Amino acid sequence: MTRPAQGTRASLVVVGAGPRGTGLLERIAANAPELYDGRGLDIHLVDPHPPGAGRVWRDRQSPLLWMNSHAEDVTMFTDDTVDMAGPVRPGPTLHEWAALDGRTFADRRTQGTYLRWVYQRAVAGLPPNAVVYHHARRALRVEGSGEERQRVWLEGRATPLPADLVVLTLGHLDAEPDDRQRELSEYARAHGLVHLPPDFTADSDLSVLRPGEPVLVRGLGLAFVDLMVLLTEGRGGRYAGDTYVPSGREPVLWAGSRRGVPYHAKIGYDWTGERPPLPRFFGPAETEALLARPDGFDFRRDVWPLVEKELGFAHYHRLFTAHPERVRTDRAGFEARYAAAGPDERAALVAAAVPDPADRLDLAALDRPLDAVRYGSHAQLQDGLRRYVEADLRRRHDPAHSPDLAVFLALLSVYGQLVRLGDVGGWWHGFFSLLASGPPGPRLRQLLALSRAGVVRFLGAGTTVTARDGVFRATSATVPGAAVEARALVEARLPHPTVERARDPLLRALHADGAAATPDGLLAVDRTDGRVLDRAGRPHPRRFALGPHTDARGSGAFTRPRTGGVAFRQNDATARAVLTFLRAPGRPAVPDHPLLEESSR
């Protein structure tokens, strides 16, 4: 295999210049003093959007759209809790950098400004003879065997970028609609209806949703919250305390989903006292044992019991530590019996030790709160769902329920192990988002106001939509026999860009060229350093990938300080592999690159 020769400039192409690409650049700068030999290095960032902010955090979007995390919980910098080989390079959190109250939910444009500053700092920290070029274009395909320099073709450019190595940090991607979505869109065109398939809400054309008309909405997660904001305040409505004052330009949103409820609100208090010692039942040893199984593992059979036990341990450790008046036994004895017990024995143990059912962790009820609930009418459902949201807001802002925050910390710990296991299916990510990635509390208070004003109405759980008789019709298991008709349907969720359906031409070309994909449609990578795997499981020596399009994806949220930072660990491993490769001699000289575009330094 040939590598950059002594005295020649090495070339690295990074496709995607948003937060993940910026994080990789920061780790390259941090590791370069140890690993790089000082020869010239050209880093080409390929992204049609601005470096740092990328698409999601760009300036050109509504100032009404917020981040989904407290400003104090957002950092782009490593600390000593990250399990990595590279050096810690501390830096400010968003709230420290922007001088915000740490409990603020900053708007996305403010986060974009922070990300641009992090990008500029990372560039400034690179070796003196490194030059960064931003190509505001899309990458179309990459060519080249593992034995030769890669060629990265860009949209609108006649010659490819030569690259010793290529790293994909693509972030969230658009996807072609699946068969069902195509059917609904075709039906809408044939009958003069409106169908908005899964998309990034900030990029959707919402002008087609007309004032006063009913709109069916499938999805009650974060995409729904954006939709709600843009169609209410974004159309001139306002809030007077807990009352919504309409502008008259709002449609009527009938919203439902599989669960029928919005994600749980962000927890609104800080941790105090002793933390649960995590991991306890699902750590590196258990992960390695699962990976070593010759016949593989099944998530529900082999992994979920470990997750369930870990979450329960964190919950009860906090209950016994912070609220001992609400239990009937001592913590040490309970935890010893908990550790030895199977699922049925644990249920009996908890029932005996924790008298109030509200203090027990019931993951099934959290996952499907409406499964056994039925209402006789949609009017009754509205009252019931408002009570549910009100109760959630009270609980998530009351430190008397601090075991909920312990479960959140356990979820972060568990996520770090699941990333090592690879693609564990979509259910887990939805469950994690339900508990850990819900909207800010103020957004749910706005939802309640909109519900009372009749602008938002709930459909219930198990929402299904059919297209017939020239309209869309929604039903749910929660209100049997009732239906809502509308001439507009919005799929309020992000697209799921499998390698076959991603609109990104580079990702699809890689797959067609032999890159492996998981059953869930994610790009398969070596989880030690992010190298792209072929269908025989062999890593490509010159191609890497990081982010949600891979089976080593982490949470979509930004990293909280002092939580181990799975993305930081991955970025560091890839950066070190890149630098180690690029410093080695043995490649003939390559001419200077033609048509180099905007240089950052």
From TrEMBL:
This is FAD/NAD(P)-binding protein. It comes from the Bacteria. Pfam families: NAD_binding_9. The lineage of its organism: Bacteria, Bacillati, Actinomycetota, Actinomycetes, Kitasatosporales. Transmembrane segments: none annotated. Residues 13-172 form the FAD-dependent urate hydroxylase HpyO/Asp monooxygenase CreE-like FAD/NAD(P)-binding domain. Residues 534-564 are annotated as: Disordered. PANTHER family: BLR0577 PROTEIN. It comes from Streptomyces ardesiacus.
